[in-house]
Amino acid sequence: MDKTDKRILAILERNGRISAAELGRQIGLSRTAVQDRMTRLEAEGTIISYGARIASTHNELIRAILFVTISVRPCDEALNWLAQQEGVQEVLSLSGEIDAIVKCAVPDVESLSRLNDRIGANKLISSSNSNIILRQIN
């Protein structure tokens, strides 16, 4: 599994119904190349089904939780912007000292670093702290 496969999995995990053409536009591949990769990932058992449920034994994505403090009120603009960032799976709005929890899955540490930088640089955000998920117990 290469970096491109990991990017495909991260996007599919966020939106399992995305078209191959749109996925290709987002990662810079043709629709056919994306479909070939997805077919291979299905055959290998990495992609189990669509809403893309990814087998944990094949999941090499870096998962993290970001604790975000928003600098503007109301928070809707910032929350919506966060939800649109590549790699973001879910945004939870909170009461209290932390305004939002952002769940993300990215192909590698460099992608997490870029996501952190992008979030931290936005004028809507006053602070962000990320924590990599080591394991999930169901």
Describe this structure in words.
The longest helix is centred in the first third of the chain and has 13 residues, at 31-43. The chain has helices at residues 3-14, 20-27, 31-43, 76-83, 109-121, and strands spanning 47-49, 53-54, 62-70, 88-93, 100-106, 125-132. 39% of the residues lie in helices and 25% in strands. Helix 2 packs across helix 3 (31-43). The mean pLDDT is 89. By secondary structure, the protein is an alpha+beta fold.
Provide a short characterization of the protein structure.
With 138 residues, the protein is an alpha+beta fold.
Helices and strands, in N-to-C order? HHHEEEHEEHE
Strand order of the largest sheet: 4-5-3-6
Shape: elongated
Give the tally of β-strands. 6
Biggest sheet record: 4 strands, antiparallel
Highlighted features:
138 residues; alpha+beta; two-stranded antiparallel sheet; 5 helices; 6 strands; elongated
How do the strands and helices of this protein lay out in sequence?
Layout: H1 3-14, H2 20-27, H3 31-43, E1 47-49, E2 53-54, E3 62-70, H4 76-83, E4 88-93, E5 100-106, H5 109-121, E6 125-132
Helix pairs in contact: 2-3
